[in-house]
Specification:
The complex is a heterodimer of chains A (about 450) and B (about 180). Helix content of chain A is about 45%, strand content about 15%. By secondary structure, chain A is of the alpha/beta class. In chain A, α16 packs antiparallel against α17. In chain A, about 55% of the residues are buried. The mean pLDDT of chain A is about 95. In chain B, α2 crosses α3 and α3 packs across α4. A four-stranded mixed beta sheet of chain B has the order 2-1-3-4, covered by helices on one side. Chain B has two domains: about 60 residues, NADH-quinone oxidoreductase subunit E (Arc Repressor Mutant, subunit A), CATH 1.10.10.1590; about 80 residues, Glutaredoxin. The mean pLDDT of chain B is about 90. With about 180 residues, chain B is an alpha+beta fold. Classes of the chains: A alpha/beta (about 450), B alpha+beta (about 180). The interface between A and B is large, with 72 and 55 residues. The site of FE2/S2 (inorganic) cluster has 12 residues of chain B, from α5.
């Protein structure tokens, strides 16, 4: 059993409520921080911990915090990104609904480290019931003196609010999120300036993912060095993985980074193997945006060694031969899966979610969906496959925000690794086996 | 019908508005639109949008610009039970297409339509964060997961007498801290 930091108390009855959470050592990090630490020392601990952002990009959290501008007399903000809309990702939902106080505690501790007096949790609108859970937890934190004016008699004030979104994947992108929080359309901003300089209401702002913030209490309680010992090298700590698709045990697992992908898929502790005794065909390891890899390439590295669940190992082989840890949305596909049709669901998703500001993204995502639809319907040609390749290559790197890249990579990787399947659809559409997933899954 | 929040909803609206720094009240727009949609039959009419704009002292067109960006805001009337079925990868891998077909057959409507009696609307949506419990659908504010045909039948049959359009307001009461 690997070490658990975030889900250590997941199975304690009543952990959703304040009393039980507190009895399990909750809010100790707030006490330690406010009573014994300076803000600078806290940022130092987070730097030492090696914690990297869990929202997808993996940017070192301590470094991000140290970039926060601190002009005199200007408020600073901390915004927690709970927009969680990357297909295949449901870890933040799990954590917030099961142990809401770990996020509230993390928000208070982090806010203190950043000198923030107003913080927001921006949560996707569809997570209605979690809004209620979080509001309850925040209310309990206020009632027990962890939020509000003069926390623990220190003179430090903090207000924490939950802000709901309304259905837009792009609002997970941090600058689009800030626009949305300001009551506008979720159009990403051109960077620079980065939020650390000009974020919410033009003030210095840190945006961090739920899981990132929830990792902070452990680091403050135990020290950055202790955290850095968990995991391997630059992949320090534990990671929540959302596992879905054709596996026996879908769900959210906290892993110590460094276990093998093979172990994650097949061991009883995690996914429990492929459903219905089928063979593994492919995996999307880090949410819909990352390259899909065929079974042999996700299990083994080019060197022949086993691939590990770390930032570095998953990306080994580069774009052609590797993938990314991303948000940890681990989608598993068995041998019956049509890669073309799965890709179509992604292409339709990105077309639906493009904010439309940049033409390569707006037009490209629309065309990719149309062409894939045509291929799926049996009306495609070999030239369409080349066209698809051409379009995705023109989006990457030519847009305001990374959604364009995110839309391109799944297409590029599917064609790269499974070109024969696309060819089968266009050369002999009648022979393509259309799987009925309902019968497949409920057999 | 004149569009106006009742006393209770108005109090909630003012509480939301008070959360933001002076001059930044537009931040309340999305929360207020959720509230308005729940209060006024599950959709945002031009009158509703104008009313929300008046609370924040902004133009109706500014409200429309925002409302039309977000997929949760309905700019046309919907049935009392809005059924939103996820169709993205993880749900597709576990039978979302078949579940959608099943609902279409059962209710006699297609994606985007409402039943004649105004009871059910069907809408396919993108990943709702229930990929590990796929296939799934959302009705009102509630997630229904690990769907089978039988489960869908039971849920839809039990919905028949309820108006789920107010659920946002029921779920997300704004707390006094
Ligand atoms: C299109 C797009 C969608 C994103 N969605 C999310 C999301 O749902 N949740 C999240 O935490 N980060 C998301 N991100 C990443 C954020 O922009 C940002 O990097 C992250 O919130 C920073 O937090 P972290 O450093 O703690 O990971 C998204 C990025 C892009 C480009
Ligand atoms: S890349 Fe796409 S989503 Fe991002 S800003 Fe441009 S159009 Fe919008
Ligand atoms: S893919 Fe359907 S909920 Fe995520």
């Amino acid at each position: 059993m690997g070490k658990k930091i975030l889900l250590e108390h997941d199975h304690v009855p009543g952990i959703q409520g304040y009393e039980v959470y507190r009895n399990c050592g909750g809010y100790a990090s707030v006490e330690k921080a406010i009573k014994t630490m300076s803000a600078e020392a806290m940022v130092e601990e987070v730097k030492k911990s090696g914690l990297r952002g869990r929202g997808g990009a993996g940017f070192p959290t301590g470094m991000k915090w140290s970039f926060l501008a601190k002009p005199e007399g200007v408020p600073r903000y901390l915004v927690c990104n709970a927009d969680e809309s990357e297909p295949g990702t449901f870890k933040d939902r799990y954590l917030m609904s099961r142990i809401p106080h770990i996020l509230v505690e993390g928000m208070i501790t982090s806010s203190f480290a950043l000198g923030v007096n107003t913080a927001f949790i921006y949560i996707r609108g569809e997570y209605f019931y979690i809004v209620r859970i979080l509001e309850n937890a925040i209310k309990e934190a206020y009632a027990n003196g962890w939020l509000g004016k003069n926390i623990l008699g220190s003179g430090y004030d903090l207000d924490l609010y939950v802000q709901v979104g309304a259905g837009a994947y792009i609002c997970g992108e941090e600058t689009a999120l800030l626009e949305s929080l300001e009551g506008k359309r979720g159009n990403p901003r051109i960077k620079p300036p980065f939020p650390a300089i000009a974020g919410l209401y033009g003030c210095p702002t840190v945006v961090n993912n739920v899981e990132t913030i929830a990792s902070v209490p452990y680091i403050i309680n135990n020290g950055g060095d202790d955290y850095a010992k968990i995991g391997i090298g630059r992949s320090a700590g534990t990671k929540l993985i959302s596992a879905s698709g054709h596996i026996n045990k879908p769900g959210v697992y906290e892993i110590e980074m460094g276990i093998t992908v093979e172990d994650f898929i097949y061991s009883e502790e995690y996914c429990g193997g492929i459903k219905n005794g089928k063979k593994l065909k492919a995996v999307v390891a880090g949410g819909s945006s990352v390259p899909v890899l065929p079974a042999d390439k996700i299990i083994n590295l080019p060197s022949g060694e086993k691939r590990l669940m770390t930032y570095e190992s998953l990306s080994e082989g580069g774009f052609a031969g590797g993938t990314m840890l991303g948000s940890g949305g681990f989608i598993v596909m068995d041998e019956t899966t049509s890669i073309v049709e799965n890709l179509f669901t992604f292409a339709r998703f990105y077309h639906h979610e493009s904010c439309g500001q940049c033409s390569p993204c707006r037009e490209g995502t629309s065309w990719m969906e149309k062409i894939l639809h045509k291929i799926m319907d049996g009306h495609g040609t070999l030239a369409d496959i080349d066209l698809l390749w051409e379009i995705q290559s023109k989006i990457e790197g030519n847009t305001i925000c990374p959604l364009g890249d995110a839309a391109a990579w799944p297409v590029a990787s599917a064609i790269r690794h499974f070109r024969h399947e696309f060819e089968a659809y266009v050369t002999n559409p009648n022979a393509v086996n259309k799987v009925r997933h309902y019968e497949n899954m409920n057999a | 019908m004149e569009v106006k929040f009742n006393e209770e909803a108005l109090a909630v609206a003012h509480k939301i508005i008070a959360r933001y720094p002076e001059g930044k009240q537009k931040s309340a727009l999305i929360p207020l639109l959720h509230l308005a949609q729940a209060e006024f039959n599950g959709w945002l009419s031009p009158e509703t949008m104008a009313y929300v704009g008046s609370l924040l002292k902004i133009q109706a067109v500014e409200v429309y610009e925002v409302a039309s960006f977000y997929s949760m805001f309905n700019l046309k009337p919907v049935g009392k039970c809005l059924i939103e079925v996820c169709r993205t990868s993880s749900c597709w891998l576990r039978g979302a297409n078949e579940i959608i077909e099943h609902i279409e057959k059962k209710l006699g409507i297609k994606d985007g339509e409402t039943t004649q009696d105004g009871m059910f609307s069907l809408k396919t949506v993108e990943c709702l964060g229930s990929c590990g419990t796929a296939p799934m659908m959302m009705i009102g504010a509630q997630f229904h997961e690990n769907l089978t045909y039988e489960k869908v039948d039971t849920i839809l049959d039990s919905c028949k007498s309820e108006d789920k359009r107010k659920t946002y307001f029921d779920e997300v009461t704004v707390k006094d801290y």
